[in-house]
# Entry
Amino acid sequence: MQMIWTGLLLAMTVLYSAVMSGGVSFTAPCYDDSVTVRLEERGEVRELSLQEYLTDVVLQEMPASFEEEALKAQCVAARTFTMRCVTEGGKHENADVCGDPACCQCYLDEEEGRGIYGADYEACREKVRSAVLATDGQVLTYDGALIEAAYFSSTGGSTESALAVWGGDVSYLRPVSSPEEPRISEVSLPFSAFRDMLPLSDLDGSPSAWFGSMTRTEGGAVETMVIGGKTYSGTELRRIFSLKSARFTAAVTDENGVFEVP
Ligand SMILES: [Zn+2]
# Structure
């Protein structure tokens, strides 16, 4: 199984700015145990406590080897996301959340967990469970309401505004510096793949002329880029080429088109 950590190096700054303006609410111990989450997985819906659910979410969203405080931050973000789905309704008719990270949040069942963590599964789950318990009931609010606790694995150095990503403004989701260790990821594909993946572009001419003008958002992500005469949004290209973020550069070598994400 391929390990996918979609987890956050949480736009910590986003989280903190929300804390500053809205606040973390503390509730009575074992709040999480009193909340029932309806989880849809593989076509079935089952109910489990928020405490159990969050443990298996965070175990997948962030490596259990991460620092305790990072795990706690992830717990607060995941709890906030979940509580919005529970209290305000999510994307599913008969469930609060699903286990698809592209839709809701990752969820790691025991079998998958043992496949990933092996003999360390119990110890890792216990470590994450401690972070869930230590943050019991804590959520992020803004003006008294649960925030849109969007999180992601890598920022490329800066978060992005909601307006640039989703097209709608969310007052507390602003581009802020989010430094992280350089981890350049590269997607390099032969020219034939570009022709397959971008059928609406005119890619008959020399590849050196394929990549045209590019605009960037305030946060530094690609807003638009012209390829083969067609204008794409940065988020479109990110999705098409499975890039880690829309903060990419693009170049053409002798044989390949190459995207680099810092
Ligand atoms: Zn979902």
Notes: The longest strand covers residues 36-41. The pocket of zinc ion is lined by residues 91-92, 97-98, 100, 103-104 (CB under 6 Å).
